[in-house]
Design brief:
Length: 117
């Protein structure tokens, strides 16, 4: 029932998504500090949901985020997020193993140092 959903939502600390309608139907956002699995068929919007969640978290909540794609190109991802009004190039630093900045970036150097130890 709605009352039970409200009670459960009251006990869970929530992380707002900033996505119109989603925070309302989830009782304030996703459970904070927990993993949320998003399932669905090809083209149903999983990637767009994840990207909008990360973008809104970064721009509205000052939260860090990481997006890893195994299939979609950077160009495809940029077009996806542009369809809802965001410019990916203004929002993120994109690194991939063939990027000229990959090995010189401080994060990569620190990570390589950890792996060598």
């Amino acid at each position: 029932s709605n009352k039970e959903v409200g009670l459960a939502a009251g006990f869970l600390k929530k992380c707002p998504t900033g996505i119109k309608g989603l925070d309302e139907i989830t009782g304030g956002g996703f459970p904070q500090g927990r993993t949320t699995l998003v399932c669905g068929g090809t083209g149903c919007g999983k990637t767009l949901l994840a990207m909008e969640y990360l973008v809104r978290g970064a721009t509205e909540q000052n939260e860090p985020g990481v997006f890893i794609s195994f299939e979609e190109t950077i160009e495809d991802l940029a077009m996806n997020i542009a369809s809802i009004g965001f410019d990916l190039n203004e929002l993120v630093v994109i690194f991939h193993e063939h990027s000229p900045t990959w090995f010189s970036h401080p994060f990569t150097q620190a990570r390589r140092a950890e792996l060598v130890r």
